[in-house]
Amino acid sequence: MAIDLLVAFENEPPALDFIWPGFLAGTVGALVAPGATGKSFWALEAAMSVACGAAVDGKAAGGDLVGLAPERRGRVIYFAGEDPEIALVGRIHSIGKHLDPQARQAIADNLTVEPIMGKRLNVMDKEHLARVIKFCGNARLIVLDTLSRIHCLDENSNGDMAQLVATLEHIAANTGASVLYLHHVSKGSAREGQTDQQQAARGASALIDNARWCGFVAKMTEDEAKCLSDRSFDRQPIYNDRRRLFVRFGVSKQNYSVTPVDHWYLQHDGGVLLPVELMEAKKEGVLRTVKGRDDERW
């Protein structure tokens, strides 16, 4: 049905409904990162945040581990295509150690994690598509981990990828849910350290151009490890030996809001990502003894 322009001119528009800040309900978004960066852990924790909500009955639920502050909770479907069930159970157990009982119950009530590894899901197949839409009816968020596991098209073809994103939009329109797909970055982007750029995603540009939101997860670089510290008492740099434990989440494309600041996370036991406050490392030279000699380290 066409928009009534006079009504739109003369009346205040309804407030936009965001899954989390910037990710509009009923749209398609992407989360891109190199392999083994932590994007699946971030996406699973984000799914739990939406399933739990920022609060339950006016009380903090303690389920928003990644700090997304979702406006309201709802049903979430997580299709896990890369990992076997035993690995997923281990991740869920590790995350559960950081959740209070109220949050665990809310998440159990609203989140469905569906292992699809080896099941050859193809959303471009009409029967598969119909089953996905039926299964995800009335969901608030659908997570597809990862994109390459749910289709058989050419990811380097802009025509094919525009058609794929349009199919994901069809799922969103028929379920009322936002659809978040996980995707890998290109080898060139990873090699050049540009995984936080909008153009970093592997394959055709239509994958990101046609999505309404794009986030990224990136490992801490060597330069960042020299300049940042997680130690407020002495502000010693993180350095290369610990940088693998830190990942940065940010937004590289956002159509409906101001782009937020990046968030840093520290990887805990089992791979769980929890927010960490980083500060500028101390810049003065600190005299240390290394292998029996004095060495000035910056």
UniProtKB/TrEMBL annotation:
It comes from the Bacteria. Transmembrane segments: none annotated. Gene3D superfamilies: P-loop containing nucleotide triphosphate hydrolases (3.40.50.300). SUPFAM superfamilies: P-loop containing nucleoside triphosphate hydrolases (SSF52540). InterPro entries: P-loop_NTPase (IPR027417), RepA (IPR038724). Pfam families: AAA_25. This is Replication protein A. It comes from Pseudomonas lundensis.
